[in-house]
DNA sequence: CGTGCAGTTGAGCAAATTCAACGCTTGTGG
DNA sequence: CCACAAGCGTTGAATTTGCTCAACTGCACG
């Protein structure tokens, strides 16, 4: 049930590379992204890449929040992931992006050219294994997302909040870097159902909503009970 | 929107390895699976591996149909994939299986020990890249599955039938190697809704159901219209 | 010729969606 | 500094979709 797309912290221990080990620290030492990539800033709702475009870059979020989306012919949108600082996104099956990526809020990302990575991966087995780890981690998250989509609305929202909470410094307050519409498109619900479910959780004292973008988890056990 | 878990046909062209190139032919020449693996037969509903077990093997379906499942605490089951002959399954994020695998019908699979593959992948960059391709292909299918789960019941069933049809020799008749319950758990619907939707499609002359396990696609355009 | 399982069908119900109105911020211009 | 518009979120009522519960059918197998 993960909200973030790719987090190098999770794969680096497996691959025995120290390069990413301290991604979580406030100022991580330079890794492949810092060395080979360039920093780009995007405004709210600005497109980073579009569906069908050539997949030439791999990105790492430095600040903000990036969503990846797929859109059905009739306009229904599914948000596949939210990537938070430290997460990697842009890994795509094949040569073309099957999803688009946009900044949910003003965001900075570091972009590494895919061909650069590919060339180095051919030489450097550790990098090849790192890329494999990214793909595997992304697979895990996508599986969890699919599993989320068979749950009830309450369960989806509870799971979502608990996932976000894992990423927060504070483990009681969650800041939502996305709109209700984005949450709805991620959870496979309508904006009204998301709103109603949040107020329901507030009425049952599971959470509190000081502002629409801040959630206080008052009663974690009751949320966890919904996190099947 | 793929039903099969992993199909080497799709990854081999990208990786430039000839070993798997003719997987689709009636009697494929020996590849890693034939050389390094052993053939095992499973009966209907027999477990191949369970959730939480060590992920030591990679499997390729020789005959039959294998489902991979995840189960929520309260017993709700999601089928993540159906693997048909030629497909690979068992690739798992991490050391433990996050899903179980069972034979939907009596099936033969070829198992390759993961450690064997890993050892060879360290030496053989082509094999490492092949494994990467498997992960990426699996990722694509899982994304498509997640997208399926935001569609209407009719759309899900139509998509499912069209996906299965792609795998059939005949492109008008589809054989279903799984029960209604399995289809329901794959599509995130109930068995009753699947049954009702199939009869609805039959009443609208989109399909015909000579037996419950055989579907004739009478009107592909009308099915495709639902395949958003 | 029963028995049991898989699938279908029906009726009523519950959950989530749709459509619509309302309220709260936020930013802008007078 | 206030008025007002625009965007976002919330709430309500009616509707729809798919689910639950239950009965029934057909088929395979002993």
In short:
Chain A is an alpha+beta fold and 228 residues long. Helix content of chain A is 39%, strand content 25%. In chain A, strands 1, 2, 3, 4, 5 and 6 form a 6-stranded antiparallel sheet that branches. Chain A has a 3-stranded antiparallel sheet with strand order 7-9-8.
Write up what this structure looks like.
Two copies of one chain form a homodimer. Chain A has 228 residues and is an alpha+beta fold. Chain A folds into two domains: 8-146, Jelly Rolls, CATH 2.60.120; 153-226, Arc Repressor Mutant, subunit A. The first copy, chain A, has eight helices and nine strands. Chain A has helices at residues 8-15, 32-36, 114-123, 125-148, 153-167, 180-187, 191-203, 220-226, and strands spanning 38-42, 47-49, 57-71, 77-83, 88-89, 100-113, 173-175, 207-211, 214-217. In chain A, the strands form two sheets. In chain A, strands 1, 2, 3, 4, 5 and 6 form a six-stranded antiparallel β-sheet that branches. In chain A, strand 8 and strand 9 form a beta hairpin. In chain A, helix 1 (8-15) crosses helix 4 and helix 6 crosses helix 7 (191-203). The longest helix of chain A is centred in the middle third of the chain and has 24 residues, at 125-148. Chain A is elongated. Residues 1-27 of chain A have low confidence and may be disordered. At the A-B interface, helix 4 of A face helix 4 of B. Chain A binds a DNA duplex (30 and 30 nucleotides) through residues 152-153, 179-181, 189-193, 195-196, 198-199, 212.
């Amino acid at each position: 049930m993960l909200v973030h797309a790719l987090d190098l912290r999770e794969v680096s221990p497996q691959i025995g590379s120290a390069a990413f080990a301290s991604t979580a620290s406030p100022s991580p030492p330079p890794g492949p992204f810092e060395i080979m990539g360039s920093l780009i800033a995007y405004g709210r709702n600005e497109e980073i890449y579009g569906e069908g475009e050539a997949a030439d870059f791999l990105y790492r979020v430095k600040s903000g929040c990036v969503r990846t989306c797929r859109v059905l012919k009739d306009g229904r949108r599914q948000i596949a992931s939210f990537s938070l600082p430290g997460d990697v996104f842009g890994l795509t099956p094949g040569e073309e992006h099957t999803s688009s990526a946009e900044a949910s809020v003003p965001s900075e990302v570091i972009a590494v050219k895919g061909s650069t990575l590919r060339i180095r991966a051919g030489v450097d087995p550790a990098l090849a294994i790192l890329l494999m780890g990214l793909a595997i981690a992304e697979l895990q998250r996508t599986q969890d997302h699919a599993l989320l989509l068979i749950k009830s609305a309450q369960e989806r929202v509870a799971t979502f909040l608990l996932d976000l909470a894992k990423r927060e410094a504070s483990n009681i307050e969650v800041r939502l870097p996305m709109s209700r519409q984005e949450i709805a498109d991620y959870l496979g619900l309508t904006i009204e159902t998301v709103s109603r479910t949040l107020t329901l959780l507030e009425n049952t004292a599971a959470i509190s909503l000081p502002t629409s973008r801040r959630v206080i988890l008052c009663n974690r056990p009751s949320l966890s009970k919904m996190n099947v």
